[in-house]
Design brief:
There is one protein chain. By secondary structure, the protein is an alpha+beta fold. Helix content is 35%, strand content 26%. It contains four helices and six strands. Strands 3-4-5-2-1-6 form a six-stranded mixed β-sheet. Strand 3 and strand 4 form a beta hairpin. Helix 1 runs antiparallel to helix 2. The relative contact order is 0.24.
């Protein structure tokens, strides 16, 4: 994966606006029978930050691309929120949940891009 699409760039920018960390973009287009073309995985340090990141992604995608997620799950406790944009699924974790569920490992065969943290 060499370059982010405009929509992926918008998602990454929205995450970084709220100081999201350890952003990874996974390209699933070459893997058969996947539920999406891309995964964006990141973390926020607390449930409040996970909530802020989720809201930021939703706002920016709506403003810039008139896109709304078909489903958002996990906002009740904000430990792991998944936002489904059909071709792209955004996962926002607190660190302990990301480590426990280890979805990064599930897709290690797919090309991916690590996005450098902004402080």
């Amino acid at each position: 994966m060499k370059k982010l699409t405009k929509e992926l760039k918008t998602i990454v920018d929205a995450i970084q606006d709220k100081k999201g960390k350890k952003i990874r973009v996974v390209d699933l287009r070459r893997i058969d029978d996947t539920i999406a073309q891309f995964l964006v995985i990141c973390e926020g340090g607390t449930p409040n930050q996970v909530s802020a990141i989720t809201l930021s992604v939703g706002e920016k995608m709506r403003e810039k691309w008139d896109e709304r997620p078909t489903t958002v799950d996990g906002t009740r406790n904000n430990l792991w929120v998944a936002m489904d944009y059909a071709d792209t699924i955004v996962h926002v974790f607190v660190p302990d949940c990301r480590e426990f569920y280890d979805i990064d490992h599930l897709w290690e065969d797919a090309p991916s891009m690590e996005i450098e943290d902004i402080d």
